Amino acid sequence: MTLNAQALGLLQQALQFARHDPQAARRALHQASQAGIADAVVQREVARAALQLDPALSLAAMARAVELAPADTALRFQYACLLAHQGQHAASLPHFEATVPGRDDAQGWHLLGITLQRLGRHGRALPALRRAHALAPTHPGILEALAESEFHGGHPDDALPLWQQVLVLKPRDTGVVLRTAESFNRVARHGEALALLQRATTEMPGEGDLWMALAQTAEDAGDRDLAREAYRRALALRPGWALAVGGLLGLDRAKADDADVALGQRLLARTDVADADRAVLGYELGKVLDGRGQHAEAMEAWHQANAARRRVAGRPDVPALQQRVQAIIASQTRGRLDRIGKGGSDDPRPLFIVGMPRSGTTLTEQILATHPLGHGCGELPDIALIARRLAEDGHGADLSGIPAETLEDATRRYLRAATRNATADASCLVDKAPLNFFHLGLVALLFPNARVVWCRRDPRDIAVSVYAENFALDERLATDLGDIGHYINMQTRLMRHWQAELPLPVMELVYEDLARDPEPVARRLVEFARLEWDPACLEFHRSERGVQTPSRWQVRQPIYTRSIGRWRNYGDALAPLLAVLDPDSYPAEAPMPSAENAQASTPSA
Q1: Where are the domains of the chain?
Q2: What is the pLDDT of residue 272?
Q3: For residue 457, how far is the Cα from the chain centroid?
Q4: Rounded CA gap, 433 and 418, in Å?
Q5: Percent of the chain as helix, strand, coil, to the nearest 5
Q6: The pairing of beta strand 428-431 with beta strand 350-355
Q7: Alpha helix segments (H runs only) across 136-223
Q8: Lowest-pLDDT choice from 44-53, 368-377, 579-588
Q9: CB 187 within 8 Å of CB 419
């Protein structure tokens, strides 16, 4: 008997044993693998036979087969599939990348795309999934995978029609309904999102996630009554559901129902509540207590919320962020930006509102968006996504060497997002993503005729507001008062750099000035935006446009001053913040405390 014949005989034994004696089958497979150790065909067949019986052997045998027949692309593709099947996506990726282009079939491109997707690389997944879709335009799995990557890649306009197609195929799939509604919201079609969710909750009234999504969408649309009803339906389906309780508390804050407040406090006091839920409850309870004047209790709730959020998300790497800021300052100077030149669009309409979160960016946007020729884009993710894709492609902080076609595609996609739902005559497109202050060098490269508004506010009020807010998990710097202070300092330092080096005009707008005497500041803002003054700009609170930020309810009220000096309610609790704030972090309206009054004022001060 030759070696290969012996191996094949053992394989046949294994197949015979597989149903009634798995242990004997595994033994035979190991023996077959050893007998055919130098035969790629034997190793491939062992891998196939061992797939369910012995996954580790299956993988080892296929790896050996590829080693023995390195030119066999079909074998290497099978190895990639096996790695992916066992959850080893990073290991499978180079094998898919090496073999899929030669196959050029929908299955291969689909597998390459979802492998990249599972590694969180949605931008890189898109070309593969688009190719798969072109080859098999009605394949349900490809449609859904492409829709997901278009959505996460920052292309909601492209994702929405795909999700609508998937929804036709899966009308009662809760996940598909939710993603379709979220895509409607991303493109500011809130009415259609509401209609979809109302229809879905009618057809599937027992799905709590649908009621939660309806409540949150109703909040964004300004329908408080519908939001409250939907939160209550969600809570009835899942008694004690932290997200629903938090939603009700956040909706009415100081006026929240006492029974809801008591429920939130009981849940927060329990030791078996998950940290993700504890964070939501703590943030919203704190706002209720703050609104009722119970400031010590509010701060304690926020301490609990932020501690829980840190346990979930981890602590930030402040030194790494400081290094990032230093790299930007060192590399993106006026001289270097001028040498790179203008590679984007000369469109004069984009205006970028930047600054710390909770510094008045939403209010500033609303003033301009209410102008007949202004269009509020909300917080577009596009600039940050463009920056991330450029970094993934190897373009460093100095922004040099970016191909012209890459810049053209970026500006085209950005303008498509910025003009979404804008009137044809809109001459000012207002993007209020506050953290774009990291990317203003890129903005200058893409839109050399753009303008920038830097929103500033007393850093102590910013810090209290940020510490109290339920931000996304990746906003780790928001969970510690000292870290927030460092973040404010870095933002101030970087903005001072942009004021000196950026080849774009930058207007500094202080929230306290705007709140105390709105019209002169609003007039300066409108003039800076190259618009004629219109009294409608001071009637922004009457606007019915959707607002998807934590300020959604505040901007539906006239300008008020009660948030100025709010930090004074929190006394010594702010010591970690005050210990790190730089003098320049205080705008003119909020001077740094003097040496003899460096401690936070008490509520009686």
Answers
A1: 3-123, 318-597
A2: 94
A3: 25
A4: 12
A5: 65, 5, 30
A6: parallel
A7: 140-152, 156-169, 174-186, 190-203, 208-221
A8: 44-53
A9: no
Q: Which CATH number fits domain 3-123: 1.20.120.10, 1.25.40.10, 3.40.50.1460, 1.10.1520.10?
A: 1.25.40.10
Three-class secondary structure of residue 378 per DSSP:
strand
Predicted confidence at residue 13, as pLDDT, reads 58
Full DSSP string of 415-467: HHHHTTT--TT--EEEE--GGGGGGHHHHHHH-TT-EEEEEE--HHHHHHHHH
Q: Which residues neighbour 129 within 8 Å (Cβ) at sequence distance 6 or greater?
A: 109, 110, 113, 114, 117, 142, 145, 146, 149
140-164 residue pLDDT tens: 999 999 999 999 988 899 999 999 9
Please state whether 469 falls in left (phi above 0), alpha (psi between -120 and 50) or beta. Answer: beta
What is the DSSP-derived secondary structure letter of residue 358? Answer: T
Short-list 424, 398, 396, 432, CA closest to 549: 432
454-511 tens-digit pLDDT: 999 999 999 999 999 999 877 777 899 999 999 999 999 999 999 999 999 999 999 9
- CA nearest neighbour of 115 among 151, 135, 79, 88: 88
High-pLDDT (> 90) share of the chain, %:
72
Tell me: pLDDT of 589 over 70. Answer: no
State the architecture of 318-597 in CATH terms.
3-Layer(aba) Sandwich (3.40)
pLDDT, mean over the chain: 89
